[in-house]
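Shall we go through a protein fold together, starting from nothing but its sequence? Please make up or recall a protein chain and show it to me in full. Go ahead whenever you are ready, and we will take it from there.
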Amino acid sequence: MELGYLTKAGHYVEVDSFGRRTICKALRIDESKKSTEFLGVSRSIEALGQVQVTVWLHRNGWANPGERILGRSRARMYRTRTGHYVLGGSWRRIKGMTADAYYWRPRPSVWAPFLWRGKFPDKATKLFPPGRKRPFVLRFLDQTVTGSRREGRIVELLGFELKDFSQFVIGKLSAELEFEDEASAESFAKSFPAADDRGKLDTAVSVDVGRDKRLAATRREKLTLASCISSLIGIPSLIALLTIALHLPSSDTLPLLEISTVLAVLAIPSVFRYRRRLRSEIRDLRMKWPTEYFRRWTSQFPLRSGALIATLKELNVTLDPTMIDMRPLQNFLQRLPPDTFFGALALDISGYLAHAFLQIVGRGARFNWRPEVGTAEPVLVLDEAYLSINFLNKVRNIWISKGKEELDHWLWNGARVAEDRLALQPIAILIALGFMKEVNQLPQLHDDLRNAIPISLSKQQRMGEHIYRVTWIRKSPFDIAWTEIEKPPPGWGLATIAAIPFCSDTKTLEGKLEASSPRSPSREDLAIVRFKSNDLVPLGVLLHNYLEVGPAYVKRSDQLELKIIAAVEEAQVVTPRMRDLQSQVKESIGPKNMGQGIPMDSQAAFMGRIVSISETANPFTGIPLWRIGIDFSGFNLDVLVRKDKCGGNPQPGLFLAGTLWLVGDLLPSEPSPPSEYIG
C-alpha cells in the first residue's frame, strides 16, 4: 500500500511515508483510456466508482491511533487483476508535499529508480511539482492488505507499505474508503479478510525499520543544531537590540537587519533538513536499507526464480529454465526504454542469471553472496575460482546502456572462466612451482594458458561414454596437462575438468596403493600411495597423467613406479643446533589433511635432511627455484622450492621443514580398460 502522484505524462512517482519521492517510469496510468502500462504491457482497469479516501500511518501498530498522511479527498477507484488504484483530488493532499514544493525545498528532489546508477535523464524540476491539477494515487496490491473492517458505507483497509516495490516493509498504513452506497462497500470488503483483532495482525506483520520520530543525535550533533537555530534567531535579534540600545540611526542598521533576516529565512529549510536527518527513523532506515533487503534477497536465492518466470510471463516473456536460453530475456531488456528501469525486477533478473551461471558451471560449485564495497549490492563469489561477478551490473548494462554482447555468450564465457579456475585447483601448486608469483596473477595466467591451448600439442580420446581432450601446455621441463570433456548444451562444447602442473625433471619412486582406499573420495585422480622406505603412512599423489592410466589404476596391487615432483609451498631451513632443540620431532613426511584415516589431498608436512642442492627456474615466468634432495630417514625425495619462499640459505647437512604438494606420473604396467566415468 503506497501513496504517490502522476506526472503530466502519466508516470507514477512514489511518495513513501518518509517523504521521499521516487520516479517510476515503468508504470504509467492513463485514466482517460482506463488503462495502465507496466514495462510496455498495457492492461485495462475497471472503474468501481467514487469514494472519499483518507490514509493514516500507524507508527506503533494498527492497534494504536495513526498519523494522517493523506487528507480526506474525493477520488475514483479502479480495480486491476492484482490490486486497486485510487486516483483523485490533488497531489498536495499528501502530507508535506505543499511545503516541499513551494518553500522548504527550493530545489525539489525526486530520486531515480532503485538501483539506478548515474544521472537520470529527466531533471527533478520536470517531475516535481507535477502541475496544479495532477492527481494523487493510492496504490495497493491485494497481497499487501492484511485485513478490512466495514461499517455501513465505510471500509477500512489495513495494509503495509513496501519500499521501492521491494519486499522491505517500512510502515503500517490504514486507508478509510467511504463509498456512495452500502452495497458497493460490502462488495468491495468481501475481497479482503476481516480484521477483527488488530493486535493479532500487528504480531503477524513486522516493520523492517523503526518509526520513532524522536531525535537520535549525539551531543555534538545536538550542539550543532542548537547553534544553527541560535544563529538564525540571534543575529537579527542582536542587530535590533544594538540599534535600540546604542540609539543607532535606522538608516544605517536597517539594510544590515534586512540582509540578516533574509539570510536567516533562507537558511530555515537547511536547518529543518538537518534536524530531519537526526530523527531515529531516518537513521534506522539508512542503516538497514538496502543492506538488509539484499541480505534477505540472497538468503532466498534461487527460490525467487520461479516467481520471476511467472512475472515475466505476464510481460509476454517466456523463459524455459531447462534450456537456459537468454535470448527472450535479452530482447525484452533491449527494447525497454532506459528510463523505465525497475530496480526490484532487475535484481530478480540478476538472480536468475546467477542461477543459470551456476547450472552451466556445474560440479556443485560452492558459492556465496557478498556485498559490493560502496554499494552493498549482492555479488556472486566463487572463492575456489577466485572469481566474483555482479550480475546486476550486466542487467543494467543491457537495460540502460543497451549493451550489444549476447547474454548467452556472456554467461558461457563467464562459466568457462569459472570452470578453468576450478580445474586449476589447488592454486597453491601453481604458485609453489612458479607458474605465477601470487594468487592475484591468476587471471593473467588463465588468459596465457587459454591463448596457448590452440598452439600446443593435444590428444583426444574416449574413456567410457565420454570424449576427452588433453592438451600439454609445455615449456620443458615444466608443463600443465589441460584436460577437457565434451558436454551437451548449454555452454561451450568443451568443459575443463583438470589442469595439473608438472616438472618432468624428477626421480622415479616405488610404492603401492593403499589397499583399503586406493584413491581419495574427494577426487578420483588423487591416488593414495605407501612409498617404499616410507610405508608407515600413506600419502596423496595428484596424478598428472590420470587420463592415460584411467580409473582402473585403483585395481593395481603390484609395485607401482611413479615419477614424483614435490612442490614446496613454504619452507624453513633449520640448522643442526635448532634441530637438536627439537629432537622429539622425527625426520619424516606425512599427510597434512586427513579424513577417516586417508589423505584428502596431496599436501604433506615434512622435515628432512638436505643432501643435495641445485638451481633451476620456471621458464613460464623465470621465477628461480631450488632443487633440493632431502633424506627422510632413508626415503629420498627431490623437492622444488621457490627461492623467495624459502626461509634461509639451504646447504647440504642442514635441515628443511615445511609443507609440500605431491604430483606424479603413474607409469602403467599394462593398458587400462576404458572408463565409464570421470569427474
Notes: The two ends are 52 Å apart (CA to CA). Residues 672-679 have pLDDT under 50 and may be disordered. The chain is about 30% helix and 35% strand.
